[in-house]
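The freezer alarm interrupted the setup, so I double-checked each line after restarting. Inputs confirmed:
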Amino acid sequence: MFEFSSRLKTISYVLILIGALSVGFSFLAGGGHHEDEHGEHATMQDEHADHSDHAEHSDHASHDSHGEEAHHETAVHPALVHDDMPETDDFTYHKGASRAIPENNHFYASPEHHDAEHIHHQIENKPWSNLLVNSFWALALGLGALFFMAVQYAAQVGWSAVILRVLEAMASFIWVPGLVILIIILTGWFHIGGNHVYHWMAEGIMNPDSPNYDALIAGKEGYLNGAFFTLRALIYLGGWIGAAYMLRKMSLRFEQAGVDYAKNWAKMRNLGAGFLVFFAVTSSTSAWDWIMSIDTHWFSTLFGWYVFATMFVSALTALMMIVLYLKGKGYLAEVNHSHIHDIAKFMFAFSIFWTYLWFSQFMLIWYSNIPEEVTYYMARFGEYKGLFFTMLVLNFLFPILVLMSRDAKRNKGFIFTAGVVILFGHWMDIFIMIMPGSVGNNWTLGLVQIGTMLGFVGLFINVVFRALSKAPLMAKNHPMYVESTHFHQ
Amino acid sequence: MASTNQTIINALYDDDDVLLSGVKQVREKGLEIQEVYSPFPVHGLDKAMGLKETRIAIAAFLYGTLGLATAISLTYGMMIVDWPLNIGGKPSFSWGENMPAFVPIMFELTVFFAAHLMVWTFFFRNKIYPGAKAQNPDPRTTDDKFLMEVVAGGDHSNEDIMALLKETGAIEVSVNSAEHA
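Predicted 3D structure, all chains:
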């Protein structure tokens, strides 16, 4: 049995405290600076528009949206979506431009058009976005582990039986970040605490008579509305937490006497396979809901897979680090070099898989250069350029070079270094997925954000190691246990 | 393998696990194993035989780098220097700014060079080429049998070695004193 050492427990509590202080500070400070910062940021945006290559687009769009603004006010606006507008080139152009750079896009909107309000919202969003970035990252660690565990059972895998208890413990963590995400969703829906992370939740945005009306977002009302959105979140979280709980419960039957272990294992196979079907759908839809819907006008068909890749590689890395920690403490004697080597191969392979998906999404959008798609990357190539390329180096170049050789995949120092970099790199990846759409140019990556991340690391350590200490680390009656202990390459 | 006049004792096995433990026992006795023939790769056999680690990984890395360099010079020469084309308004006079469009080429040529040159290196190092004489002493090792070649000599008589091999589970043991290619 694993004993959760009091030293590690203390560390986890300290980390949780740091996280709590960071979150508390971000909310307290969140409302403070609006008035001072408005002017400054508005100027920054103007400069931006003047200097960037895309300034022309941006200027056009500004003028167009002025035009449309006027329409709004004279209530001619709904005509935009009808066919009774004159079929002139001019109108086509206007229509295209308004689709390209929507008037309430956070970046290329006209400076005059309720911009001050947007910047105000963006600053109010900062603590919420920070919470969303970190809770989604933490969710990825647990959910990726649950997916990996379900694969092990569905495919009746032999080699991995000795690490299943670690995966179970990781999967038991899902409810914690899940709860935080649920809070973010509900506060957004009911406009509590200045949460405007999801722009489509804004009041009047689906109402043609409101000055906030956005025809494109209104067109998505059937899917993007508070009630259905919350219901979906409940279904996802219920399914994931339920599957993690069931797999854990059935796995604990391997510890009881008088159970038909082979039959239990076969049942777990069915559950694992069923969960994978559920996960195939919900991993995509949850990524659309919780992340892609922040940039409401934009969509990418690859987005679910891209987020899944981030999730899976982060979870494999966390798994590896927990296994290394436990081995370092003298536990998991059955885990040999070949197991470690294989998990490191997973880290290496799925870093490349992530890059492949990231690039597939990027290149098609970059190449076709369609305004309505490319706004997503324009936002990320502006203020976020440094982060964007750092993230690519951390998530692709670093793992591929450090983990390429066989010896490196068997060396704890190499694996650990690569692991820290991969985990942080994917944290940055999620940061870049969420921040441009919710806080725009008002982002900061400082002590508060890192502190919140550490807080979630503390929660993760606390919940996962607590779960680990509650059952034997080896399911010795698992039908594949013996095969797994003999695993070699 | 250089041509040799050593006496070789062949032991035929019909199970890879038995073969693996046989290899370990034979080496524990201080005997030298010249070669093992198997219809499929047996996990852990290379380690049990005490073979040197392969250097093909280093070669693969170098081949991949060569492929990448080829792709970069190819795209630069063709698409930037020799014949810049305006494709979708992409910056056609700068390799760096047009780089994302070339990534598929860079990726494919890296893989192509690494994979193909690795295979050719493997063939070359193992003297497998069209018209090469088969080194396989018993054609059944291409079906479902495994054959271990033990170098006779030293402190052990041929009879001792053959008895040992029988003991390890070999189904057939024979002395092959013919010149071995």
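Quick read of the result. Chain B touches chain A at residues 43-44, 57, 61, 88-90, 100-101, 103-104 (CB under 8 Å).
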